[in-house]
Design a protein that fits this description.
By secondary structure, this protein is mainly alpha-helical. It contains ten helices and no strands. Helix 5 packs across helix 9 and helix 9 packs antiparallel against helix 10.
Length: about 220
């Protein structure tokens, strides 16, 4: 656990005792991250902000009954994901869908204003196009694994699946990407993702991403 996560865990413990300053510190620390994650599921900004507001209101109201998560980020990601899914289903004309995330969209986009050269722009456009062809859950696991640099165990917890299923899901996503990215050299992709990970919000997962795409399919995960 890095120092930032350790600090947030200390804030969590303080917030549970009724420390308002710790509570607001957590809110400000995670609002942007949660908003960005929520934007992958829906472009309804008001819905996302309502979900974040409801989440933190519920946290404060139930603070005395909350557990002590090893990662505050993972806990909040999982919570906002579940809350957004409920709100999206309630708004949807498919409100009678089973409790599954298979039909909830997820879009991986490059949100930062990057200064790209012609080759990098071409790679970005190709990646964007290829990622859109993947099922939502495959897009989400790529985002969590390579953009947020989460472990398989953390991803399993957030997505509500077991660790074995996480490996299989990521393997399938990488296999699909390998088939679609044949025209892009691994070196060129590495250069572009290095630029991406250097921007605010990038967590340096690009190296693992490129390694996974460059590895034989059987060893992708």
């Amino acid at each position: 656990m890095d120092s930032k996560q350790e600090h947030h865990v200390r804030l969590w413990h303080a917030f549970k005792t009724g420390d308002w300053d710790a509570y607001t510190s957590l809110y400000h620390a995670y609002f942007r991250l949660l908003n960005n994650y929520g934007y992958k599921f829906t472009r309804d900004v008001n819905l996302i902000e309502d979900a974040i507001h409801d989440l933190f209101v519920n946290l404060w109201a139930n603070r005395e009954n909350l557990g002590n998560p090893l990662s505050v980020r993972n806990y909040l990601y999982k919570s906002i994901r579940n809350m957004l899914f409920r709100k999206i289903r309630n708004q949807s004309r498919f409100a009678d869908l089973a409790e599954t995330d298979e039909h909830v969209p997820f879009e991986v986009s490059f949100d930062h204003q990057l200064i790209l050269n012609e080759e990098q722009k071409k790679i970005q456009d190709t990646l964007q196009s290829v990622l859109k062809q993947l099922p939502p859950r495959q897009r989400e696991i790529i985002y969590l694994r390579f953009y947020d640099a989460l472990s398989y165990e953390e991803i399993a917890d957030i997505m509500g699946i077991n660790v074995s299923s996480t490996y299989k899901l990521l393997y399938k996503a990488l296999e699909n990407l390998q088939q679609s990215l044949g025209a892009i050299s691994i070196v060129a992709l590495d250069m572009f993702l290095h630029v991406l990970s250097a921007t605010p919000g990038g967590n340096g997962g690009h190296a693992a991403f490129v390694h996974s795409l460059g590895a034989p399919a059987a060893h992708a995960v």
